[in-house]
Design brief:
mainly alpha
Length: 381
């Protein structure tokens, strides 16, 4: 509507920054109340938001401030939905040893949607228009509601709610100060979310200006990034137990940087898509590995709040980064902006190299356990 990369950044900011503001309340709610019920309420709210957006387009009343308001509403919905959904994984995984793989597979499903969704939406957008895209989006939440209905969960345990919400949230930050690995993981994710991951802000510019394409071209770019993300999550889900997640995060951050630098330099579309896959592989690892580390090392009664702080690192930094990326790209161009983001990714990996290449206590315990098991097998033979 506006042909402005800056306003694309503002729209992303309007969606994600409210998630930053309300994530603490969402985290406390996930620890206090029935997570299953929270998710159900948020899905209904998501349907209403998507239908309203479709009605705006169908009636021709598309006004920038209305789109921004609906983006804010979506951000508030996500602030309560995501902490509850992520915490619910622990209740549906019978063996907690399978938790890292469950988290990775959950992200793989989202990545698969990221791969297929933009490609399909690009075709639907160019053929039927934006209103149909939003209506399909609204209908998709019916599938989520059906999944919730089919889930068989143990009865929720009653939780004490006498304490004030703000005190419970402060308790989360106090806990974070004591958890060295979780704290540094979230800090690194916040920096990557601010300076690197908002590269998606300028992807429409690449599709339209650099590659001389249309909505379908934009869909293809997102799909190749999604393909890399799917490959990354499959790799993470199939990794061996006891592997050092921080070292994998280091390698993936370097991959992300290299992918973005080459994507910004290459003008050949098929070759650029190869580097888009590489960037997608490195991108998905940022949140997935951070999420696994946070969920596997946090105490059960603090998990919802710690996840909310993790989400704040994303939803607080990413929208600011989107505005910055959009503004900078209008002055120096989209390619140079993406190249700079790739360089920053490599710099961050090198700054955190001591932390990322070190061994965590849990990894050391897994190694010791593996050694003992191997000795028992040898003795048995």
């Amino acid at each position: 509507m506006t042909h402005s990369a800056f306003l694309i950044g503002v729209t992303i900011f309007a969606e994600q920054f409210p998630s930053f503001l309300f994530s603490f309340a969402g985290g406390v709610a996930a620890d206090r109340y029935n997570r299953y019920r929270i998710i159900g309420i948020m899905q209904i709210a998501s349907i209403i938001q998507a239908v309203l957006l479709a009605v705006l387009v169908l009636t021709g009343h598309m006004i920038i401030w209305m789109i921004l308001v609906l983006s804010v509403i979506l951000g508030i919905i996500n602030a309560f939905d995501v902490p509850a959904r992520q915490s619910l994984i622990h209740e549906v995984v019978a063996d907690q040893a399978d938790l890292p793989n469950a988290v990775a597979l959950t992200t793989a499903m989202a990545s698969l949607a990221q791969m297929l969704g933009p490609a399909l939406s690009g075709i639907v957008l160019s053929t039927f228009g934006a209103a149909v895209c939003f209506l399909i989006n609204a209908a998709s939440f019916g599938g989520v509601m059906l999944s919730l209905i089919l889930m068989k969960l143990p009865p929720p345990k009653p939780k004490k709610t006498e304490r004030r919400i703000i005190n419970e949230f402060k308790e989360g930050f106090v806990y974070l100060k004591q958890a060295h690995v979780i704290r540094l993981t979230i800090f690194l994710l916040a920096l990557v979310s601010l300076f690197v991951l908002p590269y998606n802000t300028v992807l429409p510019v690449f599709a339209k200006v650099i590659f001389k394409g249309d909505a379908s071209t934009f869909g293809y770019i997102n799909s190749f990034i999604g393909a890399g993300a799917v490959a990354g999550t499959i790799f993470l889900a199939s990794r061996k137990t006891g592997s050092n997640l921080k070292q994998i995060l280091f390698v993936c951050t370097i991959m992300l940087g290299i992918g973005l630098i080459c994507f910004g330099l290459v003008k050949n579309f098929p070759l650029a898509m190869f580097f888009a896959v590489l960037a997608g592989f490195g991108s998905i690892a940022q949140f997935t590995i951070s999420n696994i580390i946070v969920q596997s090392q946090s105490e059960p009664h603090m998990r919802g709040r710690v996840i909310s702080i993790l989400l704040m690192a994303i939803f607080g930094m990413a929208p600011l980064g989107s505005v910055i990326t959009g503004a900078v790209s209008e002055h120096i161009g989209a390619p140079i902006t993406v190249i700079a983001q790739g360089i920053i990714a490599i710099i961050l990996a090198l700054v955190f190299i001591k932390f990322l290449t070190g061994r965590t206590l849990s990894s050391q315990k897994s190694d010791i356990l593996s050694d003992e098991t191997e000795e028992e097998i040898i003795e048995a033979r």
